[in-house]
Amino acid sequence: MKNKKRALITGINGQDGSYLAEYLLSKDYEVFGTLKRNSVVENQTSRLNNIFENVNLEYADLTDMSSLTRLIKQVKPTEIYNLGAQSHVKISFDQPIYTTNTIVFGTLNLLESIRLFDTNIRLYQASSSEMFGNSIDGDGFQRESTPMYPVSPYGCAKLFGYNIIRNYRHSYKLFLSNGILFNHESPRRGLNFVTNKVVNEAVKIKLNLSNVLELGNLQATRDWGHAKDYVEAMHLILNHDKPDDFVCATGVSHSVQDLVDYTFNKLDMDPKSYIKINKKYLRPEELSHLKGDSTKIRSELGWKPNYTFETMLDDMIEARLKLYK
Ligand code: NAP
Ligand code: GDD
User: Fold this and answer.
1) Which of 144, 231, 306, 316 can bridge 20 by disulfide, Cβ–Cβ 3.0-4.6 Å?
2) Are 185 and 199 a contacting pair, CB within 8 Å?
3) Is 154 a catalytic residue?
4) 186 included as an active-site residue
C-alpha cells in the first residue's frame, strides 16, 4: 500500500488553514496542524468543527524554533504549509515587533528546521499582495515581476519571508515556493477584516440588532476572491514539478464602497443611512489599489477561481443570515 502524504499546516485553525485541511483530507492526506497556546480554549478550533476528529493538532508557536523542530521530527511531513502569522495589516502598526517575529523569525525557524533535519520537505510560504504596496504596473495590474515596496510592517515582514524563501531555495536547492495571494475571504473570515465586518454588521442592521456601521477608507480597492479557491492554488503550487513563485488573484478589483453597496442592496437596504466614517480604521500609510494578474498560475498549473466577487459575498451573507436566524 502506498504511504499517504503528510501535510503539516502552521495556523491550521485560521481561515485558510481550516479550508486547506479539508481540501487535503479530501485528497487523502494525513493532516497535522499547529495550535498556539491561548488562555481561552473554547472556540479556538471552531473553524475545524467539520473535521476535528480527522486532523492531528499539536501545540507549537512559530516564534519557538524548538517547537517546530520537535514537530518536524515527530510528524515527518512531506509538505509544510506555512500559513501562521499575525495577519491583520492595521494591527501590524500597533504590534510591529510581534507581527515581524511571527512572519520573519517564524519563516526562518521553519527554514532552518528543514535545512538541518529534513531537506526533502516541500514548503509553501503564504506570501501576500500586501508586499507590492502602492507599486502598480502601467496596465493597472500587479504580477510576479512588479517591484515590491510594502507600506505596512506586515507587508515589510512578508517581503522578508518571500525573499528568504527564494534565497534558501537557490542556496540549498530546497523545494520552497511562494504563493503571492491577493485578498481572499469566506464565511470563516475574521470579523475585523473589512468584508466580513461589512457583511456581519449589514445582516445585524437588517435584523434590527444594530443601526450603524463604522468604517475607514471606502476608496481603497482590492482584488477579492474566495478562500476555497485559493487553498487549491496552494496545493497546486507545492505539487508542481519545480519550486517557483506564483501570483494568485481573480483579476477583478472593487472598492470598499462597492462592497458596502453590494451587501446592503442584497439585503434591500440603503447603506447611506447607516455608514459612519471613523478615523480609527485608517492606516498610517494606506495601500490604495490591488488588482492581480495571475496568468502564470493559470497557464502553468491550470488554476482558476470558481467564485466571483458577487458569489463570494452571497456565500458570506447567506452564512451570516443563517447564523443569526
Ligand atoms: P488568519 O485567519 O489570521 O490565520 C492565521 C493563523 O496563524 C491562525 O491560525 C493563528 O492562530 C496563527 N498564528 C498567529 N500567530 C502565530 C504564531 N506565532 N505561531 C503559530 N501560529 C500563529 O489568516 P488567513 O486569512 O487564514 O491567512 C493565512 C496566511 O496567509 C497568513 O500568513 C496571511 O498573512 C496570509 N495571507 C492571507 C491572505 C488573505 O487574504 N486571507 C492573503 C495573502 C496572504 P490564532 O488564531 O490562534 O492566533
Ligand atoms: N479591516 C478593515 N476595517 N479595513 C477597512 C475598514 C475597516 O473598518 N474600513 C475600510 N477598510 C479598508 C482597509 O483600509 C483596506 O484598504 C481594505 O479595507 C481591506 O482591509 P482588510 O480587510 O483589513 O484587508 P487588507 O487588504 O488590509 O489585508 C488582507 O489582505 C492581504 C492581501 O492583500 C489580509 O488578509 C492580509 O493578511 C493579506 O496579506
Assistant:
1) 231
2) no
3) yes
4) no
